[in-house]
Design goal:
Phosphorylase Kinase, domain 1; 5 helices; elongated; alpha+beta; 2 domains
Amino acid sequence: MSTLTDKTFVVRNSAGRPAPASRASAVPARLGRYEILHQLGKGAMGVVYRARDPMINREVALKAIPLATEFEGEELEQARAKFFREAEMAGRLSHPHIVTIFDAGEHDGTAYIAMELLRGAHLVEYTDPARLLRPRSRSKSWPARRGAPLRARAERRAPRHQARQHHVRRPGR
């Protein structure tokens, strides 16, 4: 079994800096049958942990939402039903760009979804303004020139037949 490197899974705050150690102390030892290894991230509603399924010795990402502390009474029942309905729908999906759902359950008022653990980096690394690509300048390339008559027609709301793409000639023809 290949192991994933822990350096790509670092809990970060909203500014992209590693989260303080005090957060790590709140990590439970177990959630259902899963052994919690460490926290991967935290969102508005819940937490994602790196965990191990001891039944089949597989590492998983465990998304946990403390429903019992967030909702009461009828709202709790509605939230629970919605959570498991969404887990069921996501579990039916099979696509290379969607994580695989392995299990869903509830333990001591905390609902969880066990899913495929993927390698990755925090999105802050991709949204840093210093690393973003600059917007393209108005290029005068062939596709840009070809679209110019269509844009002009749209701006003046001319009839469609006056500026169709086949009326525009390619350079050199």
